[in-house]
Amino acid sequence: MGVRRLVYDGTVLFENMRFRLEGALWTCLLGPSGVGKTSLLRLIAGLAPGALVVTDDGRGLEGRVALMAQQDLLLPWLPVIENVILGYRLRGTTRAERRRLRDQARELLARVGLERHAEALPAALSGGMRQRAALARTLMEDRPIVLMDEPFSALDAITRHRLQELAAGLLAGRTVLLVTHNPLEALRLGHRLYVLSGRPATPRGPLLPKGPPPRDPADQALLALEAELLRELTRSAALLEEAS
Amino acid sequence: MGVRRLVYDGTVLFENMRFRLEGALWTCLLGPSGVGKTSLLRLIAGLAPGALVVTDDGRGLEGRVALMAQQDLLLPWLPVIENVILGYRLRGTTRAERRRLRDQARELLARVGLERHAEALPAALSGGMRQRAALARTLMEDRPIVLMDEPFSALDAITRHRLQELAAGLLAGRTVLLVTHNPLEALRLGHRLYVLSGRPATPRGPLLPKGPPPRDPADQALLALEAELLRELTRSAALLEEAS
Amino acid sequence: PAAAADKLTVVLDWFVNPDHAPLVVAREKGFFEGEGLDVELVAPADPNDPPKLVAAKQADIAVSYQPQLHLQVQEGLPLVRIGTLVATPLNSLVVLKDGPVKRIEDLKGRKVGFSVGGFEDALLGAMLARHGLKLDDVELVNVNFSLSPSVIAGQVDGVIGAFRNFELNQMDLAGHPGRAFYPEEEGVPAYDELIYVAHKDGLARPELRRFLAAVEQATLWTLNHPDEAWNLFKATDKALDDELNHRAWNATLPRLAHSPAALDDGRYRRFAVFLKAQGLLKAEPPVASYAVDLLAEKQP
Amino acid sequence: MSRFLRPLVTAAGILLAWELLVRAAGLPPFILPGPGRVLTALAAQHELILRHAAVTLSEIVLGILLGSLFGAASAVLIAASRHARRWLMPLLVVSQALPVFALAPLLVLWLGYGMASKVAMAVIIIFFPVTAAFLDGLRRTEPGWIELARVMDASAFAILTRIRIPAALPALASGLRVAAAVAPIGAVVGEWVGSSAGLGYLMLHANARMQVDLMFAALLVLAVMALALWLAVDRGARAVVRWQPETLAHDHQG
Amino acid sequence: MSRFLRPLVTAAGILLAWELLVRAAGLPPFILPGPGRVLTALAAQHELILRHAAVTLSEIVLGILLGSLFGAASAVLIAASRHARRWLMPLLVVSQALPVFALAPLLVLWLGYGMASKVAMAVIIIFFPVTAAFLDGLRRTEPGWIELARVMDASAFAILTRIRIPAALPALASGLRVAAAVAPIGAVVGEWVGSSAGLGYLMLHANARMQVDLMFAALLVLAVMALALWLAVDRGARAVVRWQPETLAHDHQG
Ligand SMILES: Nc1ncnc2c1ncn2[C@@H]1O[C@H](COP(=O)(O)OP(=O)(O)OP(=O)(O)O)[C@@H](O)[C@H]1O
Ligand SMILES: Nc1ncnc2c1ncn2[C@@H]1O[C@H](COP(=O)(O)OP(=O)(O)OP(=O)(O)O)[C@@H](O)[C@H]1O
Ligand SMILES: [Mg+2]
Ligand SMILES: [Mg+2]
């Protein structure tokens, strides 16, 4: 896809920037806080004007994207389970179908460790639990293209590890854009790693870790890449520094 | 401090639990998502009933605690800088004093990399930038006891590293409770590491990493501790599993 | 038999009160029935609505005021007076008996309250002129909902628009007797306070004649059996059964039109002249165009 | 204090304040009678008053039901279409400026003398706070939710019915509270459109006849109805939007 | 379409609809005259109408100023103290049920026949929507903010003035919108309290004299005032709470 330009009160975030998501692969996007990762995600999702998104098959993105934003955006008046099947509720379903969907959702909730909170209201959940509910909602959408903005940021090491596996499994073969702050996470899950840097920002990379995800972070080759990634991030952070 | 019991609709989170924060030290609290870290923090801060907080000097906690919650809680109608000095605004200040405070706040914002956004409204900030603003607000409070709930969760590796240093510097000699999901972060910053586990939950530990923080994560001794920490976390996660 | 009776909707000028004695009696004693009429009495809260409703053919007959009739006709409402209910003015200028105002002259520079009726200024103006005063020698204040209270409480020195059969008794009962100045004694031509108006187009309807006949019967019966009539009247609504209404009843009976259909067109001409002089009327249409005696013409 | 005793104490306190006011200001009874006289009148005329109260009560209930319905509907309509916003909104605003005596003949012409015209008048008074409050609620939906729904390919209709409207329920609730408070006066004004029953009629009549005690007795009953209605709606509204956190400690207790 | 042309087109459209209604329903002019007649009357009597309009306008402005002030103040008071909530709230609710003719004598007795008593009546009608909406806003403050403030040792007063109130401004704004819409009728009712000037009085008088065209001409002017006021408050309110995101696309344009 290409971005003509995106300006937020005076600051030019992107200018004539091009970015390609390889089909059926996980693309990870890293970069210092405030560089524009979320904005890029929103551009792709068509939530901000100025982007020109082209798909290989020429079809539009309508109906093919699932988005997990940086905030969980759970609807406070719906129990967790209803939040999980929100997409289907919004698109309209028969009662029977909905029952089926709920079972499916319950299973998903079980796998993110929320089975016992399916009927709870979001207000009764902890930060990480809310994030897991949002993840379940995103996976429930079952879309070919999935955009996720720091989906694991509020999770402890163990849970995060488990959910990474889950996502990697369920989203294998999908076109995924994963915005993350955690180099190891990127190395573990991503096929193509980019670091967004500069102002206006451009994605640098890709780094291409070997082997199919999910990978074992302990692997030596990965550690090498991690070092490189960190260097890249440091440069990018420095660039952003002087830009502001 | 001690907790008689905290029950959330039927689930007993804590029961006759005791927990001690060593003065002038950083205590890190880890634990699986949903185990009760935030709840414990809120108990200490006096935001949930049922806790009996005793201080060594026998004085109450009023006026001695600064809290950084899991959500940034920035006031949407105040520019970042005013949000940073919110505590002083709420307690009331003279205009002159306020000018002085703003300068101080601006400096702090510079150190968290937000100098150029001092006058922006929170809505114009990225997730990580909001978190940094909240951190600045907490540091600005300059209190002897500081409670922080995942203060760096939305930050990229580099920024996070820098801000950990900043916090470690500014809060050296304070009594700090840091809730975190990141074992390395705990090992880097904490004097005493606890893992909250079980339901009702009890803090297990402490682990006592050697040397003064901030430490270098690459250090071998730390890696050993990390392994132990991860084991502890895994057990705790398992416990929470079967509990629910 | 009520089944065959012709339906007739009569909109009163206001809520039911002793002014409406003949109508209520005619209904209760069955005089309407006797004339083969099924009459519904409707009571509005705003005296200005009934003529409009008749003009809009939402009702057959409205109880209205002669002075208003002249204005309504001028404004093009297709209305015609077909009968009289109360044959004297009721409107009067009332002050406290033991107040500072003994004579109309004493009003100079004082407050006079009124409740918007449309031509209080005209009445008062004429009464003042009689005594060498002009309208702007007094301060007119609109006291809408509280004519007697405002004068009793001394907020105004007098009120125009008070009904002699009510407000006077009211003030008596409240322990602050009043003194009335009567327009017809102070230079205002006499007029019919309450009249029946109907739509121009429906004058030939026989129901109207039968209605007037029934009202006449009722009036006479009421005059012949005042106490029986009162008991009949107060029994229709508990809210009517009090000292004030009883006094008003007695004060009203002598003023009822003894021959409701009869038309004194001189009286209408004179009042038209008066209103024209007051600048309220632009022209004097022939009386016959807005007031008739249905029973005078021989039955078709 | 028991939640049943509480209101009684409050009521007693208010009656006392009333009595004191009358004495202190030395108000003549034909302007504001003391509670003593009014309660006496109430006792003496209770079946008369209650008969009229019944009429007014039904007008109030009908008025608030139809008013809320119409208010909510117009708010949704306006939120849904900018045309509605452009053409309907001015009419709704103007409708609030129409005095009863200008409307009465029209209403009678169209709806006759019966209940209908009175209720219509009441509705005109009652609906607007509902519309305004609900519309503002519909406007202020968290943008993130809307964006999420868009990505989920929700139709504008689905977004309205499944996100905007539920999110705006607290606003609707506060509109309903106002509606409940103005419903009684709405019914009273409605009765001016022409009727021979109802507390409004009774009061107007009593007032014109200087039966001030009776008038205030009727008014007292109306006031009690108003309070009861308001409390009911308040409770109800809160029950509906339970998920909405309230942060005034003392609001949680009766 | 230019934002100046727009309202004109709308106005024209509404006048047309009015004319059509009158013709279609075959309404007699003495019940609802068509725009033609009304505009003629307006033209013929404009200085009379404008003289009265000036009076009413000043009542409206005073009424909405004092009403908003009183409304906001009482809301804050109630939010601040449960005693106020317990004793004041019932009175405020009841105040909405009091018909003008019951209050008029009292107001006149206390405030005389001047501007004061009319404005007082208008205020009684105007303040309540402000109180109710603002109070609801004050109730719904994000709990997290309150907790943060508590940890910062903010006094209850500081929490109220620096967090609750600013957070409730959008709610206050929607209350003010309703207030703006009811202010004109408030002023008109105020004029019934006893005045010999103002559009309310003029309408009553014209109505009594069957000058229906004149009455509706005055009403037209009142309606225009109402719309202008409402638009002004709407714009103003939105400007004040700019930080509050609005999510109805078409609300951003005129
Ligand atoms: N307001 C509430 N009502 C009901 N249950 C609650 C509420 N807040 C928290 N809980 C429950 O208490 C438990 C602990 O919540 P808490 O927020 O302390 O977890 P946590 O350790 O902070 O998790 P995380 O790391 O995800 O933030 C959770 O199971 C949650 O469901
Ligand atoms: N609504 C907005 N108005 C003005 N500026 C904005 C807005 N949203 C984002 N920005 C600016 O755009 C830049 C990029 O924001 P973005 O959220 O994309 O950063 P990010 O890479 O996602 O950061 P983080 O990792 O902290 O989420 C930031 O400098 C921010 O100030
Ligand atoms: Mg982001
Ligand atoms: Mg937490």
CATH homologous group name of chain D: MetI-like
| CA gyration radius of chain A, whole angstroms | 18 Å
Overall morphology of chain D: globular
CATH architecture call of chain D: Orthogonal Bundle
- Unique ligands: adenosine-5'-triphosphate, magnesium ion
Q: For the record, give the distance between the C-alpha atoms at the N and C termini of chain D, rounded to a whole number.
A: 10 Å
Strands ordered across the widest β-sheet of chain A = 5-6-7-3-8-9
- And the CATH topology of chain D? MetI-like fold
Biggest β-sheet description of chain D:
none
What is the C-alpha radius of gyration of chain D, as a whole number of Å? 22 Å
Distance between the termini of chain A: 27 Å
Work out the number of β strands of chain A.
9
Helix and strand composition category of chain A: alpha/beta
Q: What is the N-to-C succession of helices and strands of chain A? A: EEEHEEHHHHEHEHEEH
Number of domains of chain D: 1
Helical segment tally of chain D?
11
Query: What number is the mean pLDDT of chain A?
Result: 86
Task: Assess the beta-strand content of chain A as a share of residues.
Answer: 15-25%
Helix content, binned percent of chain D: over 70%
Keywords (chains D, E): Cell membrane, Membrane, Transmembrane, Transmembrane helix, Transport
Domain ABC transmembrane type-1 (chains D, E): 53-233
Membrane topology (chains D, E): Multi-pass membrane protein
Family (chains D, E): Belongs to the binding-protein-dependent transport system permease family.
Report on this model:
The complex is a heteropentamer, with 2 copies of chain A (244 residues), 1 copy of chain C (300 residues) and 2 copies of chain D (254 residues). Chain A contains 8 helices and 9 strands. Chain A has helices at residues 37-45, 80-84, 86-91, 95-111, 127-141, 157-170, 183-189, 220-243; strands spanning 2-8, 11-18, 26-30, 51-52, 65-68, 145-149, 175-179, 192-197, 202-207. Chain A has a 6-stranded mixed beta sheet, sandwiched between helices. A 3-stranded antiparallel beta sheet of chain A has the order 2-1-4. Chain A is globular and about 55 Å long. Chain C has helices spanning 21-28, 31-34, 49-55, 66-74, 120-129, 147-152, 167-173, 206-224, 226-235, 243-252, 265-277, and strands spanning 6-11, 37-42, 61-64, 79-86, 91-96, 111-114, 139-142, 158-163, 178-181, 194-199. In chain C, strand 6 (111-114), helix 5 and strand 7 form a beta-alpha-beta unit. Chain C starts with 5 loop residues before the first strand and ends in a 23-residue tail after the last helix. Chain D has helices spanning 5-25, 35-44, 46-80, 82-95, 100-111, 115-139, 143-151, 156-192, 199-208, 212-240, 249-252. In chain D, helix 3 crosses helix 6, helix 5 crosses helix 6 and helix 9 (199-208) packs antiparallel against helix 10. The radius of gyration of chain D is 22 Å and the shape is globular. Chains B and E meet through strand 5 and helix 3 of B and helix 7 and helix 8 of E. One adenosine-5'-triphosphate sits between chains A (8-9, 13, 31, 33-39, 70) and B (123-129, 154). Chains D, E: Residues 53-233 form the ABC transmembrane type-1 domain. Chains D, E: It holds the Pfam family BPD_transp_1. Chains D, E: Belongs to the binding-protein-dependent transport system permease family. Chains D, E: Keywords: Cell membrane, Membrane, Transmembrane, Transmembrane helix, Transport.
